[in-house]
Design goal:
Length: 194
């Protein structure tokens, strides 16, 4: 496998880093803002809370089911599919105010979010081997921290500026689409350095 110092010098590391930051921007936007969005759409607070719970439930399902099929479908394909699924669920959120659509969005988003979390370590293992996998994953996850730190506050600022959640939701979806496209571009593993 590749030592951490060598992995950091590869393009694949930085593509994974950027895609994780981009997806991270949108990851916590629904968790923070779907409740107020639902209440603004006229739903009771209990439904707003239920939507956040459904994201969490979907995430558990994604973590326990998606990771197990990564070996059969290929980790890179599955990671790209999870990012794409997150983007599509964000578009569904943008287009919806109804109970059924928002519930489907919450569960689907949670499954894709949990699925990408479960798939990411196998992608790192496929690309860089076992030598420094924990250090590489830990370094990459700083990108998720950046995305999740700035995503919800920027979405809130966009809501304040535009008076609507449309711009932050579509922005998060666009970032997830870009992340999916970048992962599809990475489908060939990097050569393992000795």
């Amino acid at each position: 496998g590749v030592p951490l110092r060598a992995a950091v010098r590869t393009g694949n590391f930085w593509v994974l880093y950027v895609t994780l930051a981009l997806a991270g921007f949108g990851c916590f936007v629904p968790l923070v803002h779907i409740g107020p969005y639902a209440m603004d759409a006229g739903h009771p607070e209990s439904f707003a809370v239920l939507l956040v719970s459904l994201i969490g439930l979907g995430s558990l399902v994604g973590r326990f089911t998606i990771g197990g099929i990564a070996g059969r479908l290929g980790g890179m394909n599955l990671l790209a599919l999870m990012y794409l699924g997150m983007a599509l669920m964000l578009v569904l959120w943008w287009a919806s105010t109804g109970v059924v659509a928002l519930s489907i969005m919450a569960v689907g988003f949670g499954i894709c979010y949990g699925g990408f979390v479960a798939t990411f370590p196998s992608v790192v293992m496929d690309l860089f081997g076992a030598h420094s996998v924990s250090g590489i994953i830990g370094s990459l996850y700083t990108a998720a921290g950046i995305g999740t730190l700035f995503g919800p506050p920027l979405a809130g600022a966009a809501f304040d500026a535009f008076g609507s959640y449309r711009v932050p939701i579509l922005g998060a979806a666009a970032l997830a689409f870009i992340a999916a496209a970048a992962i599809y571009a990475l489908l060939r593993p990097a050569p393992i350095a000795a």
